[in-house]
TrEMBL record, chain A:
<dbReference type="GO" id="GO:0043107">
    <property type="term" value="P:type IV pilus-dependent motility"/>
</dbReference>
<dbReference type="InterPro" id="IPR007445">
    <property type="entry name" value="PilO"/>
</dbReference>
<feature type="transmembrane region" description="Helical">
    <location>
        <begin position="6"/>
        <end position="26"/>
    </location>
</feature>
<keyword id="KW-0812">Transmembrane</keyword>
<dbReference type="InterPro" id="IPR014717">
    <property type="entry name" value="Transl_elong_EF1B/ribsomal_bS6"/>
</dbReference>
<dbReference type="GO" id="GO:0043683">
    <property type="term" value="P:type IV pilus assembly"/>
</dbReference>
<keyword id="KW-0472">Membrane</keyword>
<keyword id="KW-1133">Transmembrane helix</keyword>
<protein>
    <recommendedName>
        <fullName>Pilus assembly protein PilO</fullName>
    </recommendedName>
</protein>
From TrEMBL, chain B:
<protein>
    <recommendedName>
        <fullName>PilN domain-containing protein</fullName>
    </recommendedName>
</protein>
<keyword id="KW-1133">Transmembrane helix</keyword>
<keyword id="KW-0812">Transmembrane</keyword>
<feature type="transmembrane region" description="Helical">
    <location>
        <begin position="20"/>
        <end position="40"/>
    </location>
</feature>
<keyword id="KW-0472">Membrane</keyword>
Amino acid sequence: MKSPFVVIGIFALAVIVLLLWTWPAYQEFSLARNALNAAETETQNREAYFAKLGSLEKELQQYPTELSHLDSAFPSAPNLPSLYDTLQDIAASSGLIVTAVSSNVAEDSSPKEVEVNVTADGAYEGLKEFLRRVQQSSRAMNVTSLEFATPREGTRFEFHIHISAYSL
Amino acid sequence: MQDLIPKTQSESFFTKNTVLYTGISLLVLSAGLFVLFQVLKGNTEQSTAELNTVLLGGKTSQERELERSVLGYQKRIEYFSSFLKSQDDTLPFFAFLEARTHPSVFFNDARLNVQENRMVLSGQSTDFGSLGEQIASFEGQQELRNVKLTDVSLSKGQVLFTMELTFAP
């Protein structure tokens, strides 16, 4: 048992186990630990992100009227029938009659821009009222250009009005 | 032959018990650490796999709805803020014309580009003098950046013209 060869053999075996098994096992464990740390960090970030969103949602809910205005100004979708209806209402209450309306949605813009072409008949004062009401509308709209000419007969003009409305 | 006085047998370095036990301890420790690291690695990999499953599973429908709602309002607030800054008021163009039009000048066609602050007006006047006065009246106004008469002609005793007004932003 106390033979020098036995002692040397035990030492050699210990070194071999240390270098060939234990050290690689430690390195593999370290790599696994790093992967776990990365996954834990990602999970914590994700939890923090949704916790922040949750607290923002609660904060937003304290302003229901303002949120409703924002929803009206920038609806989730272009919602053309509702937009046309709004414009027709504004025209009617301004004394104009909408005779034609068409639109084009620019999907790639942010916010999405809906270009609406409105043709309406009416008096000059009606046009001014229409422009005023469009500007005050709950839906975000901008008159980008307009054209009109003196009527050949009567006092009713034909207005061509180009309006930009928006959605998310 | 037997010594009269026996010599003490000195143990060599390799045969000392302490050296032997140290070697055995080192071997056992190495093996033990190997087993420990294997177990820890297994546990760590299992925990990582569980977290990755949650992460790769993506957002729940509740999380998606929360994100859509909050980010939607964030966008709306940004858009609304920039919309208010850039909203163009068309009425001042007409108020300006109503206040500055010469009594002998009649506009019969108007094209307004609000984004470019530009208005093209076609009309007629009774004489060249009135048209000149109209242009002079416009040119003196600080609301206008430029007045350009693009076309003038005489037809049936009336002066027909087209002018382009560029308003100051």
